[in-house]
């Protein structure tokens, strides 16, 4: 359960608020009554959920680079948050092959700078650092990774997120726990939902091709991932943060948020479902050579089910329906802030029914 009483009036500093997940989280937090300040670069895509849902109208937004420690320090300490969510990142695998140094600067050094500034915030009680399921050393195991498995990563992006996990652990043990600040890291699967226009991501690529009546070109149709609607992990972050805020020591560790096992599916399964929902659509195989990406990835979510009482709500087939409905609403020029808030309300209602 997500407690509106807890979140009402909480001051939340959110890095990466202009991104896909950050925009959804900004909407959810403000709907709960939180006071949100975002700090991030300009939206990474055009169009963007940040602009389409008019996020700047509901939060305090500052454009800045987390690598600029002086500017970040002024922004965060002036706001003096109760809670910090660190989402700002370079999030793309293929981009990391072309820009490895930038990827490490943002994801590793940027994380260190965020946590260093956080030490100066007198009201701060809880931090969640958002990394990725790809932070684990991937050996294509079928049983799923648990939170104590080794960090690693073949590509620069995955490796940088493994490094960010180590930075988080070091700041927890060396500094933050002594200050009474609880810090947890969260590792979500392949997050999908309406409002994602990023390059080199499956769902945005599919929808762009649908719009143009073109064949969807796929690199690796058998690549299997833990797909989940964006609201699934975000709900887990909110539940975790409340517990972390109230009991810093007990929940200050790593957590996996992923789908149920039946929703760990290959790319061609996703394509077959979505082409059925979009008339005259089809897909084909990209025969060009592509950089290495893991063929199989799954998270073990036993820990969050037992210790947080969190579990997935929406099945993958329904998630894909919601994405297509969202995208059609956008094409029809509907009020996308209202569409997003209605989707959050629906998800919350379904989550509460599941708990009952």
CATH architecture of the domain at 7-196 and 227-261 and 295-316, please?
3-Layer(aba) Sandwich
The N- to C-terminal Cα distance equals 10 Å
> Which class do the helix and strand fractions yield?
alpha/beta
Please trace the helix and strand order, writing H or E for each element.
Answer: HEHEHEHEHHEHEEHEEHEEHEHHH
**Rg (C-alpha, Å):** 19 Å
Helical run tally = 13
Widest sheet, order of strands = 3-2-1-4-5-6-10
Strand content is 5-15%
Average pLDDT score? 94
CATH class of the domain at 7-196 and 227-261 and 295-316: Alpha Beta
Shape: globular
CATH topology of the domain at 7-196 and 227-261 and 295-316: Rossmann fold
Number of strands: 12
Task: List the uncertain runs.
Answer: none
For CATH, the homologous superfamily of the domain at 7-196 and 227-261 and 295-316 is named as: NAD(P)-binding Rossmann-like Domain
What percent of residues adopt helix (DSSP H or I)?
Answer: 40-55%
* Sheet with most strands: 7 strands, parallel
What does this protein look like?
- The structure is a single chain.
- With 356 residues, this protein is an alpha/beta fold.
- The protein has a domain at 7-196 and 227-261 and 295-316: NAD(P)-binding Rossmann-like Domain (Rossmann fold, 3-Layer(aba) Sandwich).
- Helices cover 44% and strands 15% of the residues.
- Helix 7 (156-176) links the parallel strand 5 and strand 6 (182-188).
- It comes from Bathymodiolus azoricus thioautotrophic gill symbiont.
- InterPro entries: CDP_4_6_deHydtase, NAD(P)-bd_dom, NAD(P)-bd_dom_sf.
- Residues 14-319 form the NAD(P)-binding domain.
- It holds the Pfam family GDP_Man_Dehyd.
